[in-house]
Amino acid sequence: MPNLGGAEWLILIAIIALLFGAKRLPDAARGLGRSMRIFKAETKGLVGGEEPTAIAAPQTSTEAPAEPAPVVESKGPAES
Fold it and tell me: What is the pLDDT of residues 29-41, one digit of tens each?
């Protein structure tokens, strides 16, 4: 890859922002960070001679799951 200057980096960032959108970029960066952390932990385990262990994803909520809404079946148009 050739050396990229400041203008080239700005153009690259603008193209990426246009392709993915500003709302999806933070989610993509967060997912990439998690993947890198898991990869680093797994490779560190392999180098140290330990068995790799699964890393649990952090829980986002401590509340119990909500009850599903009841399903209402319709029998078609009401007859008069």
Answer: 899 999 999 999 9
Residue 37 within a domain:
yes
**Six-digit token pair at 7?**
């203008």
> 3-class SS at 43?
helix
d(Cα 76, Cα 17) in Å, to the nearest integer? Answer: 48
Look-up of token digits 């009401």: 78
> Residue 44: which domain range?
22-53
Q: How confident is the model over 6-22, as a mean pLDDT?
A: 86
Among residues 2, 38, 3, 32, the alpha carbon closest in space to that of 16 is found at: 32
